[in-house]
Amino acid sequence: MNNFSSAQFGLQLRKQHHRILRTQRISLLSGLIAALAVPAILNAASLSLNPIKIAKDHGAVVLAEQSTKPAPKARVNVDSNGVILKGYDPVAYFTQHQAVKGNPAIQDRFGGATYYFASVADKVAFSKNPSKYVPQYGGFCAYHMSNGKLKDSDPTAFLIYKGKLYVCSGVDTAKKFHSNIDENIRKADDYWVPLSRSRGEPYSMFGPR
User: Fold this and answer.
1) Domain map of the chain by residue range?
2) What is the pLDDT of residue 75?
3) For an engineered disulfide with 138, which of 45, 76, 199, 202 has Cβ 3.0 to 4.6 Å away?
């Protein structure tokens, strides 16, 4: 009887020991799962706070963070629809030597502006070499630019000099610009893209205005 009781007591003791071991293993496993879950939760929270970001994190790729700096805008004289030269065909100035209204159905974009063309042929010519046909100084008045001012232009008051298109605010300013054209172009060029500005210095006290 005593031997049986001792054996039974030993069996119960071993069962209790196994239960303790299982409990310890379960606690250890639960702790490991919790430890792995915390970084995942933190990573998810960080992604929700900054969803636009490109990076490789443990092999995962997420979207790029947008820059807070706005893209620089081109200085072009356009209307509310983004159309330059008030819709006149830039190629026609060179081929027909006159201001010709473009067709809104035939258009192209270049340098932050939309250009209208009188024909598909003009659009094709423009697309091959747009820098040849675009107006100088973003389509602002060339004469006023030579005086350091940004003023609207009249596309019918134009002149072509040394293969470049210049538009002015009217017939009178076009004549003034043409009267001393080389010097006026030099001054307008200096105001438009002066070398001093590339070094962070203003060209004059006020600059173009």
Assistant:
1) 2-62, 85-198
2) 85
3) 76
